[in-house]
Amino acid sequence: MDHPIYHGKINREVGERLLCRNGKDGSYLIRDSESLPGVYCLCVLYSGLVYTYRVFKTPTDSWTVETAPGVHKRLFRKVKNLIAAYQKENQGLAVPLLYPVYKQKGVETEEDYLMMQPAE
């Protein structure tokens, strides 16, 4: 995936730290799924909690997000279109995507992320 909010192979904990450090409801990023190869996680901060939604390509090469039960499944040609759609209210996410958390240049591994964060 080639997108500025795609953080690659970071784990859930590192993703949550990045979002909590930003601290605003609607902050979001995309990372690799730890449990499903080829699937991504859209992580969104809301009320101090991080909500994670699976993002994946369909057999027809479209992108989709697993949202709340009962919400109509939507297909997108590009990740940027998916993100634009979910920046609106009531789209099946806990909160609209408002504040992108961009990947920093030169940061490639979990260790890199941990080195740039203050110890707790």
TrEMBL record:
Residues 5-101 form the SH2 domain. The keyword Cytoplasm does not apply. The keyword Methyltransferase does not apply. InterPro entries: SH2, SH2_dom_sf. It holds the Pfam family SH2. It comes from the Eukaryota. Keywords: Adaptive immunity, Immunity, Innate immunity, SH2 domain. One of its GO terms (biological process) is adaptive immune response. This is SH2 domain-containing protein.
